[in-house]
Design brief:
51% helix; hpI Integrase, Chain A; 13 helices; 3% strand; mainly alpha; DNA polymerase, domain 1; three-stranded antiparallel beta sheet
Length: 288
């Protein structure tokens, strides 16, 4: 990437972090891909980019394969375009003339968000399929057993698990909120086994104390987490589409159907408002 585009991305990311955008949003992954795509076509300055160029980029996004094969989902495409919008808005605030080339472009709209959950039977199949893979089992404990968001899993460090008191600390969740999650016995035992007996296999001198480590000893990042989950879903031979957030929705639904108070579920998930948690009272997870 040219120095001009690298500098633009870096300064925009810094401003978004100062404004309080979520870490994943402030990374501007979609905008970074767009800049590389523009470079390949000889467009080395945002001032040269017009509406036709962005229409061509949108067409590219809707046809390029995803990391797991197949086309990008509509949610991913709209997420990439939102990232591009943030970059163009930043550039306009800092002197880009002519405005954003996204203005007036007909952009795709994803369907209304719905809360999807899977049954306990499906969750059990996932655990069975992960039985010989300790890191994937830990991943299920964190995404389902603790109801964590994917980025919260990425950010976890070894010191965030309090084995003595059976607690897990989310130091900086969505909106930079902190929360404390009580660990169920199965989850606590699984995390303790991983930390005491298994984690050393992937520790390297470069590791930063991250709880979940990749094969090279570094922090396991979001794309790796999604790939590992997709792999265990495939091994489990379940027909449902299961993402990290589906597991979060599932544990919330299961806790509510078991009779846990909405206020406690809200605190468990880290929601700001009880109304957000109440959505799960209407989720159908089949045989929960």
């Amino acid at each position: 990437m040219t120095e001009n585009y690298r500098s633009l991305l870096a300064t925009c990311r810094a401003e978004l972090r100062l404004l309080g955008y979520a870490k994943g949003t402030a990374k501007l992954c979609g905008a970074g891909e767009m800049l590389r795509w523009l470079e390949e076509r000889g467009l080395l300055d945002l001032a040269e980019v017009g509406k036709d160029d962005m229409a061509a980029y949108l067409a590219y996004l809707t046809t390029r394969p995803s990391a797991t094969g197949g086309a990008l989902s509509l949610y991913t495409v709209t997420g990439y375009l939102f990232s591009c919008k943030l970059l163009f808005d930043y550039a306009e605030r800092h002197g880009l003339r002519g405005g954003s080339p996204l203005l007036g472009l007909e952009l795709p709209t994803p369907p209304a968000s719905t809360r999807k959950a899977v049954s306990r039977a499906v969750i059990n199949k996932l655990y069975q399929a992960a039985a010989e893979d300790v890191r994937t089992t830990v991943l299920l404990h964190l995404l389902y057993g603790c109801g964590l968001r994917r980025m919260e899993v990425v950010d976890l460090n070894v010191g965030d698990v309090d084995h003595q008191n059976g607690l897990l600390y989310v130091r900086s969740g969505k909106g930079k909120k902190r929360r404390v999650i009580p660990l169920a016995a199965r989850v606590a035992a699984g995390l303790k086994n991983y930390q005491k007996r298994e984690r050393w296999r992937w520790v390297s001198g470069a590791n930063s104390g991250a709880l979940l480590l990749n094969d090279r000893g570094g922090r396991m990042l979001g794309n790796v987490i999604s790939r590992r989950l997709a792999a265990v879903v495939k091994r489990a031979k379940v027909k449902e589409i299961i993402t990290p957030h589906v597991l979060r929705h599932s544990v919330a639904t299961h806790l509510i159907t078991k009779g846990m108070d909405l206020e406690r579920v809200r605190d468990f998930l880290g929601h700001d408002h009880l109304e957000t948690t109440q959505i799960y009272t209407h989720v159908n997870a089949g045989d929960t």
